[in-house]
Every structure is written in structure tokens, then in C-alpha cells.
Amino acid sequence: MAVPPPPTGAPPTGASPPAARPALEVVVPAFNEAVRLPDGLDALGARLAALPVAASVLVVDNGSTDGTARIAAAWRGPVPVRVVGCPERGKGAAVRAGLLATTARYVGFCDADMATDLSGLDGALALLAAGHPVVVGSRRHPSSRVEDYSHPLRKVGAIVFNRLTRDLAGGVTDTQCGFKFFDGPLARAAAADLATTGFAFDVELLMHCARRGAPITAIPVRWRDVPGSTFSVRRHSARCLRDVVAIRMSARRPVRAASPASGAASGAASG
């Protein structure tokens, strides 16, 4: 795989930028993740360091009260880490803030618990470099290996939710897998239009990409249900459904003018 040239543009404001401009930036939204984050950063840093491009991590502290930001800033590993704050609560708000703070040619995000095996990074980067503007991990891909959900309601809820949202999200059958990677300019344009602050944000983000003509490529993943998720079926399902209704309403509005993604040809998911 050819190593892409470094992107152009000014570094983001806030924390000190990494010494070398990365070709790939991975956003990790974090709310009270002081316990799980160190191991997660160790795993992510090791995998990123093995890639054939310069990479870095951007941790978005989403109003944590347990020292998450301090722990992330103190982490030392084989790749640079920056920390930015997002006082607006919600995973969608945190991912939006993180994507908008990036400057790299390629960007993505993954969950702090690293529930999706990071071996998928190699394939995702290869597809991005080959011109695929959106690459998403899918637990419903026939080649995926998925450990069963710790709570049966989560599995049922995920199936129902994805059936309700597939047409909005460019045909993606698993919108909620926290392992998504993008052409950088496309991701930043889509994030700028993102209004959903809660857990349904993935649907809207993918919708904005698809409406810009970007094909979405689904890849197989190895995934395990890690205890301690901040998502609760009972607490958050109603909010997610309300957000989906709002996303459907927003889909009627015209797409804001933006540069088309390289290689974008259609809005259908593949793979």
C-alpha cells in the first residue's frame, strides 16, 4: 500500500499538536473512562504504530468527572495522543467535536472499550488508500466473528434499530458498530452538519456521507460485548427513536454544497 502524502492545513487549536502531521487520526470519545482508557490506548497505540503511515489518537473528553482527560494526557506510547474537551454531553457531540478537530487525510473513530478488534485497522486503511471514502465495521457481515451480547435486549434492539435506519444510512446493516473510518475532508464536512448528539448519531453521520455521493464499504470485524457500556436499552431507546424521526425529517432538506469525496460514485453500502 502506498503511503499517502501528509495533508495540508493548519493544526487544530487546543492541545499541542503531534510533532509529525499524521496521515490517520483516530478519535476516541470518552465519558468517565479512567478505568478502561489506559488499556484501550495501549492496544490502539500499538496497532497504529504498526501501520505503514504516521498515525495519532485524539481523545475527546465528554465532561468526565473521573480524571479521564488527565489520564489520557499523561499516556505515553508509540503514537502521539491529543486531548480535546467537549462540554456538550452525548457520544454524537463528542465524535463531532473530535472529527472537526482533525486535519489528517484519513480519520475515524472507535470506542474506548475497544470492543471491535483493532486488527481491522489494516484493512480499513488499505481500502481508504484505494479510494473507498467510507469504511465501516459491520457485525452483520457474513465474515464477522461476534461474541454474543451480554444482554439479549441489546441484540434484539440492535436488529430492530438497524432495520429502521438502513435506508437512511446508505444501506448499512449495522450502523452502531463503533469502528468507522473516512476520507478526512468528507468526514469533516459530514460532521459539520451533524445535529444528533446522542447514540443515534452514526445514522445521521452516514446519511450525510451517502447524500454527498460517497459509497459506504462494510468490512467484517471481530467484536465482543465489553461490560460497562454507557448505553442502556431501557434508558436510551426512546431517545434514539426520537432522534431517528428527527434525522428522517432532516433528510428532506437539501445537501449543503461541499467538495465530493475522492472516488465517490454512489450511496450504497457494499461488502
Walk me through this protein's architecture.
The protein has 271 residues and is of the alpha/beta class. It has one domain: Alpha-Beta Complex (Spore Coat Polysaccharide Biosynthesis Protein SpsA, Chain A). 34% of the residues lie in helices and 17% in strands. The protein is built from 8 helices and 10 strands. Strands 3-2-1-4-7-5-8-10 form an 8-stranded mixed beta sheet, sandwiched between helices. The chain has a two-stranded parallel ribbon with strand order 6-9. The two termini are 20 Å apart. The N terminus is likely disordered.
Q: How is this fold's topology laid out?
A:
Elements: E1 24-30, H1 37-49, E2 55-61, H2 68-74, E3 81-85, H3 91-100, E4 106-110, H4 120-129, E5 134-138, E6 145-146, H5 152-165, E7 179-183, H6 184-192, H7 201-211, E8 216-220, E9 222-223, H8 233-250, E10 269-270
Parallel strand pairs: 1-2, 1-4, 2-3, 5-8, 6-9, 8-10
Antiparallel strand pairs: 4-7, 5-7
Helix pairs in contact: 3-6, 5-8, 6-7
